[in-house]
Amino acid sequence: MNLLSTESLRDDEQSVLSKISGKSFVVRAKSIGLERASLGDIRAHFRAHADRIKRQVREQGVLLFRGLPVSQPEEYEQILESLDYDLYRSNYGGASPRSNVTGKTFVSTEAPSPFIIGVHTEFCYQTTRPGMISFFCVTPAAGFGETPLFDLHGLWNDLGEPLRNKLQTDGLLYKRVFFGKKSLINFHKTWQDTFETRDKEVVRKFLEAEGMRYAWDASDNLSTELKLPAVLNDPLSGLPCISITTFNADSFIHNFRHFKERYHPVLRKMLEWFVTFEYNRKNSFLKVLHGCGRRFTREESVEIQRAAWANAIIFPWQTGDLLLIDNIRFGHARLNVRKPRRLIAAMADPYDVRSIMRAAPAH
Fold first, then answer.
1. What is the mean pLDDT of the chain?
2. Does residue 363 surpass a pLDDT of 50?
3. Whole-model pTM over 0.90
4. Can you tell me whether residue 200 is helix, strand or coil?
5. What is the torsional sign of CA 46, 119, 110, 190?
6. How confident is the model at residue 14 (pLDDT cuts 50, 70, 90)?
7. d(C-alpha 84, C-alpha 101), whole Å
8. Are strands 231-233 and 240-242 parallel, antiparallel or unpaired?
9. Which segments of the chain are extended strands (E)?
10. Residue 361: its pLDDT value, please?
């Protein structure tokens, strides 16, 4: 099978260069004759090449269509439908604050703009996850606002053997808290908003199907725990790929300092204080621990973040960019944003991580 013709981003199209900056993953609309095409012609092209495009996303991990003459979320949804993806209709169970834009697309994370959301795979804290996540740029940020892409096999290989062995053996323990009432901080989601219901029986059935331990407290807050693997073997390539998000103060602080030129020193100190406070709280909304329940040390957290940025592609968005990401092979993040910025997201093709572990145990 001949793959779509791809090229790498030029140096002047990237914010920061890394050892994978030369990865060929960009399909320019001009190269496929769509730079001035109608939406109907674009949809017809994607429909005709749907199997080929989806196969290439799986093989390469990521595909960026740049220069398409589209600008509206409705057009984006129609293009994804032309690829015959099984698109999500809600952000059910998701930690990221997102609201629907169209029936099958969402606002990209609405987390506060100064924050750096580190490397993660979508829904890595659940057993049921999207196989593909996509982003579409309606309005690029006034400054920064990139969505870094991470080669998760390269990241795994760059970790030291002691940490790899620990992650391989113990896995990860995800602890989440869903509040019973609205919080002033928008990423402290209520369980009612997260699960789109006030019926605890509906929530119970979902949590038990996911294999989660759970409890409601006297204040109507919901706590859950779930142990999951830290590394998956990609079903297509067989490559081991880390599957993790290290939401802890040390990871956040390292990333604020890694991009310190983007912050006024006072703002950066305030952000560092806030994440230290947040992750010392008993009811922090999301904590990621070693499977044995031990916290990640500062050294372990920094080791993961350094390996992540060494295996990252970071580029400013352009209007009309359409990105397709395989949610096992590649992770993503979000850097700090100078508004306005309007990015739309979609998820598709759910899979159960337990089926991957049964079919291809990590090694």
1. 92
2. no
3. yes
4. helix
5. positive
6. very high
7. 20
8. antiparallel
9. 26-28, 62-66, 100-102, 105-107, 117-120, 128-139, 143-144, 149-151, 172-178, 213-216, 222-228, 231-233, 240-242, 286-290, 312-313, 322-326, 330-334, 337-338, 342-352
10. 44
What confidence score (pLDDT) does residue 360 get? 52
SS3 227: strand
What length is written for the chain?
A: 363
Structure-token pair, residue 275? 């994440």
Tens digit of each residue's pLDDT (9 = 90 or more) over 81-120: 999 999 998 776 666 655 789 989 998 877 889 999 999 9
Q: 51 CB contacts (<8 Å, ≥6 apart)?
A: none
Beta bridge partners of 226: 174
Which residue in this structure is represented by tokens 């017809």? 44
| Contact in structure between 337 and 144 (CB atoms under 8 Å) | yes
Domains and CATH numbers, the chain: 11-108+130-149+308-328+339-359 (3.60.130.10), 155-305 (3.60.130.10)
What percent of the chain stands above pLDDT 90?
82
- Burial class of residue 352, CB neighbours in 10 A (0-12, 13-18, 19+): middle
Please list, in sequence order, all residues whose beta carbon lies within 8 angstroms of the beta carbon of residue 35, skipping any fewer than 6 positions away.
28, 29, 67, 68, 69
Query: CA torsion angle for 148, 149, 154, 159 (degrees, to 10)?
Result: 40
Residue 246 has pLDDT above 90, yes or no: no
From 361, 119, 74, select the one nearest 251 (Cα to Cα).
Answer: 119
Q: Which residue's structure tokens are 């220069």?
A: 67
| pLDDT of 311 strictly over 90 | yes
Nearest to 180 by CA among 198, 161, 160: 198
Query: Distance between CA atoms of 353 and 218, rounded to whole angstroms?
Result: 33
Question: What is the percent of the chain with per-residue pLDDT over 70, rounded to a whole number?
Answer: 94
